[in-house]
Amino acid sequence: MQLQGPGGFRTALLAAYGAIAGCAETASEARAEEAPDLPAGHVEAHIQQFTDRPIPRFVVDAGWPDLPDDLMLGQIPGLAVDGEDNVWILQRPNSLGFSDTGLAQDPPIAVCCRPAPHVMKFAQDGELLDAWGGPALAPEIDGEPQWPSNVHGLFVDEEGSVWIGGNGDGDHVVLNFTGDGDFIRAIGRRGETRGNYDRATLGNPADIAYDSDDGEILIADGYINKRIIGFGEEGDFTRFWGAYASSPDDETRAGAFDQSQASSNADGGADPASKTFGDIVHCLVKGPDERLYVCDRRNNRLQVFETNEDGETVFIQDIVFAPETGGTRTVSDVAFSPDKEFMYVSDMMNGQVWILDAKTYEFLGAVGRNGRYPGEFIWLHSIGVDSDGNLYTSEVSTGRRVQKFIFTGVE
Fold first, then answer.
1. Tell me, what DSSP letter sits at residue 148?
2. 8 A C-beta contact, residue 323 and residue 297
3. Does 2 have pLDDT greater than 70?
């Protein structure tokens, strides 16, 4: 079965659902005025509603997070919410230029700023609790530092340890650290990749999912390779698969990935019916239903899988998002409401978070729009949800920020 969202472009959506969206926004504004605990700087979120079913409502905390005055965030390609509702981000100091970090130049050339550390941990209220990262924290192998040259993907497991991938030149490794930044282990090795059929090396891993109950580490091995691959806790291979749970395709990206390839249409555009993954397998999320959700971003689809009793991967269905969308394409990350009723899917090119029924995958609405003001997105990349239902988002390219959307109820 294949599901497809209502049109991917803003004009079509507003034409089809403008009246409903307008009513929803009016109701949401009234509710926000009644809520006594909203921050003074809150901004009403842009909401679209596609059916008459009540959907989650949000306002944007425009003052979140509370970043130290001398720090500057770069692109943020990773976001996770841990079991204590702390919000973790993974950001790229290397994406900042000299005019961003004048205070860090030698000698300083401006009164602000310094690049923030790669990994940052915030409390739910936005207080910075911890920050760390960089090559010194990872081991060297044969003189080669294992810290990625361009970090990508962040996962915080139930035990509080942190997993990081990378999509820069030679970044064929996943690193695992304690919450304090102490190195635990690595899967793969920088500078070594041998294609989709290899059971030991990686190819620019984009995302990680680790379940301590079964001990399997699953990796969206997705910027050079095009597959999902699994390992046991000791680093032993468990399984791999491509689109539709088939054997991975043998095609890999030629040469190193660069950001221009993320928005190119030289591939002929998205193909939501493709028998293989596109050239960016962007996310892997284990849902509360134990299903595995894989972001086949360049094909504008989410593929849904299950693991059967024999440990084999079984394809369930495609969910297609705005199939005509070009450029950076659509599906970049997945998250679920704490009551397990709603699924949120971030759409990079259209700058919105789709709201779906988490069981039927019916499209119910969307949050956000393209833009640079609070509640809007440029290169929307990662999403997460805390136990109160608040939604967090991060942006890359020139977006370079993390935002908090405060859950105000279902209406």
1. -
2. no
3. no
